[in-house]
Write a structure and sequence with these properties.
Layout lengths: L8 H13 L4 E5 L3 H17 L3 E12 L6 E2 L6 H9 L3 E7 L1 H8 L10 H6 L4 H20 L4
Parallel strand pairs: 1-2, 2-4
Antiparallel strand pairs: 2-3
Length: 151
Amino acid sequence: MCDTIGTSDEHISLAEQLRSVSPDGAVIVTTPQAISTADVRKELNFCKKVGLEILGVVENMSGFVCPHCSTCTNVFSSGGGAGMAEQFGVDFFGAVPIDPAFNLMLEEQKDTTDGVELLQRYGGSKLCPVFEGIVEKLLAKTEKAVANGGG
């Protein structure tokens, strides 16, 4: 039995439920701030203790994209997710900045008067290549595991 001090019953129940579906693993999401990475380190340790493979780390809120000039500014610091992934020896999948234009695109999907579908708008967004890069790394990791007899 692993040490579960400080681990909530919800975490333990979720881990037990996940065992029944044999997931490929977990994608850990953090923000770049030290307070967030310190908390997420506990989740990484928990995954290791319960035998849930950590597929990789994504850093969310990694900068702010100015809606006027499109410059990305690190308002919360940067690199916390990449550093944490390196410390734990897991893959770093990428960093996703806050982009007000992306949020606006999602909110405007209710207005269909312009005839542009959400998927087309998404393809033209600045975050599309960021998410595609993350998905490519995730797929490469899971396809490699399947090829090696896992998953």
